[in-house]
Every structure is written in C-alpha cells, then in structure tokens.
Amino acid sequence: MKNIKLTLEYDGSNYQGWQKQKVGETVQGTLEKAIEGLTKETIEVIGSSRTDSGVHAKGFVANFKTESSIPSNKFREALNYRLPDDIVILNSEEVSDDFHSRYSAKGKTYSYSIINRDVPPAISRNYLYHVKKRLDTKAMEEACKYFIGTHDFNAFKSSGGSVKTTVRTITDLHIENKEDIIKIYVTGDGFLYNMVRIIVGTLIIVGNNKIEPCEIREIIDSRDRKKAGICVPPNGLILEKVYY
C-alpha cells in the first residue's frame, strides 16, 4: 500500500468547495472519480483544507492510499488527462504511511484580492472582490500588526463547524498594493471557519476609516463576532501554500 501526496491547483468557481456533499460538484468528489477510474479502486482522498464554494487554490495538498502499481510520479500526468481543465495536479509523489495532508500540516498561507475602483471587473470577476470606495491602505497595513501572534480569534469565526479551541497563531499578515489591486496575504498555523474572509472584511472597515487600526486589539479581546467586519465573498480567496 502506497501513500500518494498530490499538490494541486484549482479554480473553485464551478464547485461547491473541496469536501464531498450530497448535492453539487466538489473538488474532492471530482478528484476521487478520476483516481478511481485510473486505479479501479475505491479511494478516499484526504484534503489539507475544506475550502468553501467559490474559493480557489494554487498549492492545495491531498493524499490517498493505493495498491496500484502506477509509479508515484506518473499519477500527475495520468490524472491531469482525466481531470477537467479547472483542476490540475502540479506534483505527485510517494510519502510515508503516516503522512496526513490535513493533520500533518504546520501552517497555511492564504491570499485575498480586492479590486479597488469605481466599476467592477468583467474578466476577473471570479477572482477579485470589488470595493468601490477608495481604501486607506496605509491604515490597513497598520491594522495588520495587531493580528500577528497567538490570540483567541472567536470574533473572526462564522457559526458552524466544531473546534476544540478558537486560539490560533498568525505569523504574517501583510498587504501588497499595485495600481487598483489590493492583495492581502495571511499565514498562520490554522484558521477558523471563514476566519480569513472576516479578517479581510474587518481590514476593509479600517480602510474605510470607520475604525482606527488600534481598535483591532479591542475586537480580538472582545471575542464578539458582531464587532468584527463582514465575511467577504469567497471568490477573492486563494489557498496559496500548505507547510509541512
């Protein structure tokens, strides 16, 4: 029995997220069908994250167990032949039996992209969140530093899902601004349900000069979801990389 690790990229626009559901196409379900068609085995693919409907990934990691004689590095080409164009295997390799794409992960980096101009985009509408009012990116950058560190991020979690603790560690949060595109990068040891999207929504409030950057600390300490910003739409979110 081999344990195969896959690194993949996908456009989540046409999927109901990563995780299999009773209704609707998912990335996990589509990938499992492709692997089962190749190996003639019943396969369960384990994913590094449960990305939501419409969320994209550049460095998603998954693994599965197989008794197939196909060389581990050949799964990439064989699966790409069977997969739709919006899911691409970047790499396939054999890993130790105890490797688990989710539980072995030590951290993740996400990015969220905003287009900050008067009119929304046409071509890139599935990858950018449109904000019409000009944002104060300097204030947003100042606010970023208050998120860094180990905190109880209960104020930045949507209802739903079950976790033992809402304490997480963010090691990096920064903004890259080029013309009318604002890209927010956040790296941490793990993220709560919709945590990144709520952090972005809160930074937008700062960018609108409705709250001061230093008020982020008060929001975190309050543990009150109502005090944080909106959960921005999923289309601007990309899972950039998973760390092991």
Automatic annotation (TrEMBL):
Its job: Formation of pseudouridine at positions 38, 39 and 40 in the anticodon stem and loop of transfer RNAs.
Keywords from the UniProt entry: Isomerase, tRNA processing
Gene Ontology process terms (BP): tRNA pseudouridine synthesis
GO molecular function, one term: tRNA pseudouridine(38-40) synthase activity
Protein name per Swiss-Prot or TrEMBL: tRNA pseudouridine synthase A
Binding site for substrate: 110
Recorded catalytic activity of this chain's protein: uridine(38/39/40) in tRNA = pseudouridine(38/39/40) in tRNA
SUPFAM superfamilies in the cross-refs: Pseudouridine synthase
InterPro entries from the UniProt entry: PsdUridine_synth_cat_dom_sf, PsdUridine_synth_TruA, PsdUridine_synth_TruA_a/b_dom, PsdUridine_synth_TruA_C, TruA/RsuA/RluB/E/F_N
Subunit structure: Homodimer.
Record-linked Pfam families: PseudoU_synth_1
The keyword Isomerase appears for this protein: yes
NCBIfam families for the chain: hisT_truA
Domain spans labelled Pseudouridine synthase I TruA alpha/beta: 9-104, 143-244
